[in-house]
Design brief:
- The complex is a heterodimer of chains A (282) and B (354).
- Chain A has 282 residues and is mainly α.
- Chain A has 2 domains: 53 residues, no CATH class; 224 residues, no CATH class.
- Chain A has 11 helices and no strands.
- The two termini of chain A are 45 Å apart.
- The N terminus of chain A is likely disordered.
- Among the domains of chain B are: 33 residues; 97 residues; 34 residues; 75 residues.
- With 354 residues, chain B is α/β, with parallel strands linked by helices.
- In chain B, helix 2 packs across helix 3 and helix 3 packs across helix 4.
- The chains are: A mainly alpha (282), B alpha/beta (354).
Chain lengths: 282, 354
């Protein structure tokens, strides 16, 4: 870490002070806060390095495609199944609330708004965080622990470009694609439930679905999923790339990748929602 | 590049391609549904209150979605200008005098603009036109009307309370009916009478029904009269003949009256004969003289027959007469009224006239 970013806690000269004063003056704010800000600094440096490396050759196209396959194609069954179930469950659970108003005809509109605006990107990102971020974190963590990354550096291969840039790019590209599939499959799940209960036809269902949403919703969903994909890739890579030594570090990297990615996804969802709602007014 | 890497690349390519297809399908479906990719014209309407209408909401015409709200801007002092994008293909159906009003897609649904009305005399709407706006009823207006209704309801129930109190106390006609036992009995009797009357009416109508059914029985007089065309024609002919007969009778009567009038006058022979008493006396006297003369003439004739000079002539004549009678076939003898009888009748008539 030290070699990577160059950030270090500031050590104060304590020759003429007592021990207590010396301890308190060794950190800028406090030990814990200094550590948090240091970590933040590392994160921004990591992100900055990504944006610096991504534009310049050599481009690891093959590795990007490999990662796209791993992250996108291999996650499709899990995410599709999850999305389909969520579509059915959400529709079924929403029905009683609308039935109280005699407004079950509005179910397609409700499902549409919920899935396109929020649940499609969010569910995809959460599932991907569980599967992809942990995978990347564990993979890069084990490479760090087994000094494969150091070996790459020694052999004149840029490990950041090969490992981090390719994975972050693949994740950033594949999560939006997965979001499209999840949204479609969730809507189909919702349709199945609506058709079973309200005998609504497929055309009517999708007509009502598109009646309720706007271009802004689709754009917001796409942008959101790009940001989620970037977050998942970046968190997984950061945690794995900077994992501590030992086998314990691999598990820790995988675990913290999932937790951090999910936490960040929720935070981002909240912020993006505020921005989109602000845009919706205009 | 190995085969497995190629395969992976192709799968990833297909995966991304399908994702893009889904995205584009969604965008085009949404655009098509929201009429985003169609040629459109912009028309405006200025409302006092848009009741929560938002850009992107739908515009309807005769129950058909024809466009969307493009922008909503504050206008003038406190009005709101709404710019609508309307499909160009429906332009010819919307007239310049059409009305734009704010409506709701359902009770809890989005607001929209409904364009309705417009006359055939007005030209079709064109780009940039301003439609007449009908301002919507807002909740406050509804509540105000509802409050007035409530006040009316309170007044009505107050009146009704007073009325029912009077009825209970037996005041007024209805109260008396409700509380007075005599009136109630009278009413009951009246109802019983009415029932009796209605029963009688029923019986009468039954009898009438039977009578009319008899009238309608085929072969009956009334039915024949009503249905047989031949009888009707005969009746018509008879009536015409009767009319002719009546006309003739009138003519005869008229002639008779004229004749009678003449008979009553003395300016003709019969009138004088019938009406002039002096002439009658003279005539009577003449007749008496004539009778006397006739008797005397008879006596003279008998004397001539018995005269020897003429006796031969009369005998010869009698013989010729007898001979002629023998030669002729026997004919029935006509009863000749005796001359005395005729004379007597004439005298009776004269006396009656006098």
């Amino acid at each position: 870490m030290k070699g990577l970013t160059g950030f270090q806690p500031v050590e104060m000269d304590s020759s003429n002070k007592n021990t207590e004063n010396t301890r308190s003056r060794r950190y800028v704010i406090s030990k814990r806060l200094d550590r948090i800000f240091l970590e933040l600094g590392h994160v921004f440096a990591f992100i900055a390095r990504f944006f610096k490396e991504v534009w310049f050759p050599p481009y690891e196209i093959k590795e990007v495609i490999n990662q796209c396959y791993e992250i996108g194609v291999r996650s499709l069954p899990l995410i599709s199944l999850t999305g389909f179930i969520i579509g059915i469950v959400f529709t079924n659970q929403s029905r009683p609330s609308l039935a109280d108003f005699g407004a079950t005809a509005l179910l397609p509109a409700l499902i549409s708004v919920a899935i396109v605006r929020a649940m499609g990107p969010l569910v995809t990102a959460l599932i991907a965080a569980g599967r992809v971020a942990s995978g990347i974190g564990a993979e890069l963590g084990s490479m760090r622990v087994t000094e494969q990354i150091d070996a790459m550096e020694v052999s004149a291969t840029n490990p950041f470009k090969f490992l981090v840039v390719s994975r972050v790019l693949a994740s950033t590209l594949m999560i939006p694609a997965l979001t499209m599939y999840t949204t479609l499959v969730s809507l189909l799940g919702g349709y199945l439930n609506v058709h079973q209960n309200e005998q609504t036809t497929l055309i009517t269902f999708f007509y009502q679905v598109f009646e309720a949403i706007t271009f802004l919703d689709i754009a917001a969903s796409s942008v959101k999923s790009v940001i989620f994909g970037f977050t998942i890739g970046m968190v997984g890579c950061y945690k794995g790339y900077n994992s501590s030594k030992g086998t314990e570090g691999v598990g820790k990297a995988a675990n913290s990748s999932v937790v951090t990615a999910m936490f960040l996804i929720f935070i981002e969802e909240l912020l993006i929602m505020q921005v989109i709602n602000a845009l919706r007014v205009f | 590049m190995s085969t497995s890497e190629n395969k992976r690349s192709i799968i990833v390519g297909v995966f991304v391609f399908l994702a893009i297809v889904i995205l584009l399908a969604g965008i085009f479906t949404l655009g098509g549904q929201q009429k985003r990719f169609m040629e459109s014209i912009a028309v405006r309407a200025v409302f006092d209150d848009v009741a929560g209408l938002r850009a992107g909401n739908n515009v309807w015409f005769s129950g058909v979605k024809i466009g969307t709200i493009k922008t909503i801007n504050l206008y003038g002092d406190s009005q709101v200008e709404v710019v609508m994008n309307i499909e160009q293909r429906v332009q010819e159906y919307i007239r310049k005098d059409a009305l734009a009003r704010i409506s709701s897609e359902s009770f809890i649904g989005n607001k929209n603009i409904v364009i309705d009305g417009g006359t055939q005399q007005a030209p079709p709407v064109s780009d940039g036109d301003v439609l007449k706006a009908v301002n919507p009823l807002n909740t406050d207006d509804l509540m105000e009307t509802l409050q007035k209704n409530n006040q009316n309801l309170v007044a009505i129930t107050g009146d009704f309370k007073e009325l029912s109190g009077k009825i209970v106390r037996g005041e007024g006609t209805v109260g008396a009916i409700m509380t007075d036992s005599t009136l109630a009995n009278d009413l009951r009797t009246m109802v019983a009478n009415l029932q009796q009357t209605s029963r009688s009416t029923v019986n009468a109508s039954k009898a009438l029904s039977q009578f009319t059914s008899k009238l309608n029985t085929p072969g009956g007089l009334a039915n024949e009269l009503m249905t047989d065309k031949e009888v009707f024609e005969q009746l018509k002919t008879s009536m015409a003949q009767l009319e002719e007969a009546t006309a003739s009778a009138n003519e005869i009567t008229e002639n008779l009256r004229t004749t009678t009038n003449r008979l009553n006058n003395n300016n003709n022979a019969v009138g004088v004969l019938l009406n002039d008493q002096e002439f009658a006396k003279q005539l009577q006297s003449t007749m008496q003289n004539l009778e006397t003369s006739t008797q005397k003439f008879d006596q003279n004739m008998q004397a001539l027959q018995n005269n020897f000079l003429l006796r031969g002539f009369f005998r010869k004549q009698a013989k010729e007469e007898a001979k002629r009678l023998e030669q002729q076939p026997v004919q029935p003898v006509q009863q000749v009224q005796p001359q005395d009888t005729i004379r007597q009748q004439r005298q009776d008539t004269l006396q009656q006239k006098q």
